[in-house]
């Protein structure tokens, strides 16, 4: 069955089945926001053959990723999700099953965070595109912002970087990666297809902050690459950074898959790892890293010198500047 | 200058110029919602050659309409706007001026309602599409819903119906409408290109409601046509309606342009008039219509009989049922 055969009303009935019944059926959805919380809003559009492709991503994975991208933006603000809307532009010759699987992927990801789809729109389009707007709440004192890093802050990243780009490479070129075990291949591909928004970090961070009153949290997510995140934070805070090349967390699997130079390139510029990059006063940051164990790493520090440098204490001659221009840019 | 020449960062800098500087630059925007208000959220996607076309709509008008469509959905819930997000998928060969004019149209419409663009996304796409999510607030007791009409309610519509469809016809076929004056042509075209969300009705309605405690307001907007709005309200409320054909407000201009039968067809099924359709107890509804003067009309009543009938007391034999199937349907 194709979308153009079931029609708009038929398709709406199917996708509304993925929403809480009390939320849909009016011109707009109504949500309550607790009085001591601010509302946090983020929006992202994903377009067929730009952000995903039937060659590398099943509709379930497109759904998962679409939800995860937006929840990661909420996590990057320190906010907990309360709902998303989904606007879907779709070609008439997509199958109805494709749409159902897209919503299945969306709700699979969202269900981990008790987040409903509260509304949306469906329309015909000559290219399939998905626009998601996600809503969250944060105590305004605990909001994470790019512009509030201080000179002397340590830079902390969660998880590994580069795995998502490695997974994409395996999907595009399955003949590569012969040195990898089946589990290793799956782990890289999963990093690309099923990224995990790091909402799990927030309760730990916010509990710790109770002991550091009036400390602002600087940070963002690494959706456009680790280098991009560091540059964006430094620009917004009008500061610089020194990042230690050897401290950037790269998984053993990725190191097995490609050369150290390639792995570093993907960690810095590959993007789509959806980890958090936080800048915190050293004592607070070190306590957080102790609590998170191998799931977090200190990779450098914020400096008053505005240059953003990648350094290697063991090879002082290899200093280079981090830039935005090597990451993915639209157009 | 083309979009692909200025690139993502250049384009972002331009569109961020249309946003309050304190709202943009992070992973998400932060808004506060007063504690006694609920948050209302609506989303709509507009796609090139489906919802607009360079043949009939300038980029400024695309912007105006995109904002108006979403603000009308807020009005249809009884909510006042507090902000919108704009996700734009765009082909690389559109001109940068096109994007600027789009945002100019958006902000022109929004400025009438003191509503900022608080965030968004820009990405490459093989077809230009705009996805807007609008946020508003409403006292939950004053929310307008489709499902709360009562048998005996009178059906009130604001403004005229059919003018937007008339304006579209003039844009598609400029050789028509030779009987119209220049002002009449402009008035129909303006109804199509510059629809006005009926947020102006809300203060009057909500003030009146203070004298009718615990009266629920049933209604929606007529974005998909007057017939669609009446059918949707009746379905959601599990009731029917009798609509008097001769009471449907059709402008003199439209009556000059086309035959009475064509004008009625466009009023019922043309869509995009973005008026409000309200169902209210007779005394409340009549008071509202007195206050609004020629800007509102009583066109019928809600019935316990579930049929949705278009009747004409002067020609009892002409009864017909209103349906969804004659309005615009995607796919």
Automatic annotation (TrEMBL), chains A, B:
Statement: the UniProt record of this protein carries the keyword DNA-binding: no
A GO BP entry: thiamine diphosphate biosynthetic process
Any one GO MF annotation of this record: ATP binding
InterPro entries in the record: PurM-like_C_dom, PurM-like_C_sf, PurM-like_N, PurM-like_N_sf, ThiL-like
Protein residues bound to ATP: 103, 120-121, 146, 223
Chain residues that bind Mg(2+) 5: 224
EC annotation from Swiss-Prot or TrEMBL: 2.7.4.16
Domain spans labelled PurM-like C-terminal: 150-308
Classification via Gene3D superfamilies: PurM-like C-terminal domain (3.90.650.10), PurM-like, N-terminal domain (3.30.1330.10)
Positions of Mg(2+) 3 binding: 27, 73, 221
SUPFAM superfamilies: PurM C-terminal domain-like, PurM N-terminal domain-like
Record domain PurM-like N-terminal: where: 25-138
Broad enzyme group: transferase
Binding site for Mg(2+) 1: 43-44, 121
Kinase among keywords: yes
Entry similarity comment: Belongs to the thiamine-monophosphate kinase family.
Function recorded in the entry: Catalyzes the ATP-dependent phosphorylation of thiamine-monophosphate (TMP) to form thiamine-pyrophosphate (TPP), the active form of vitamin B1.
Additional notes on this entry: Reaction mechanism of ThiL seems to utilize a direct, inline transfer of the gamma-phosphate of ATP to TMP rather than a phosphorylated enzyme intermediate.
Protein name: Thiamine-monophosphate kinase
């Amino acid at each position: 069955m194709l979308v153009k055969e079931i029609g708009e009303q038929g398709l709406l009935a199917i996708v509304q089945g993925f929403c809480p019944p009390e939320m849909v059926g009016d011109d707009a959805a109504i949500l309550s926001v607790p009085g001591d919380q601010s509302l946090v809003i983020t929006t992202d559009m994903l377009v067929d053959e730009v952000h995903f492709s039937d060659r590398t991503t099943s509709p379930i994975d497109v759904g998962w990723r679409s939800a995860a991208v937006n929840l990661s933006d909420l996590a990057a603000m320190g906010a907990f999700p309360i709902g998303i809307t989904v606007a879907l532009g779709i070609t008439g010759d997509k199958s109805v099953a494709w749409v159902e699987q897209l919503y299945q992927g969306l709700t699979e990801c969202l269900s981990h965070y008790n987040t409903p789809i509260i509304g949306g729109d469906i329309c015909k389009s000559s290219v399939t595109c998905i626009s998601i707007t996600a809503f969250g709440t944060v105590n305004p004192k605990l909001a994470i912002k790019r512009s509030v890093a201080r000179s002397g802050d340590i830079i902390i990243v969660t998880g590994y970087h580069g795995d998502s780009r490695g997974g994409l490479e395996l999907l595009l070129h399955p003949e590569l990666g012969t040195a990898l075990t089946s589990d290793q291949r799956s782990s890289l591909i999963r990093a690309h297809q099923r990224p995990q928004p790091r909402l799990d970090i927030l309760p730990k961070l916010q509990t710790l902050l109770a002991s550091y009153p009036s400390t602002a949290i600087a940070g963002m997510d690494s959706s456009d690459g680790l280098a991009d995140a560091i540059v964006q934070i430094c620009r917004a805070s009008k500061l610089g950074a020194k990042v230690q090349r050897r401290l950037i967390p790269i998984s053993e699997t990725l190191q097995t898959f490609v050369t150290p130079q390639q792995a570093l390139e993907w960690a810095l510029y590959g993007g789509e790892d959806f980890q958090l990059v936080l800048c915190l006063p050293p004592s607070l940051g070190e306590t957080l890293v102790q609590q998170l164990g191998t799931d977090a790493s200190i990779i450098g520090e914020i400096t008053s010198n505005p240059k953003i440098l990648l350094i290697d204490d063991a090879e002082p001659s290899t200093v280079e500047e981090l830039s935005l221009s090597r990451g993915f840019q639209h157009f």
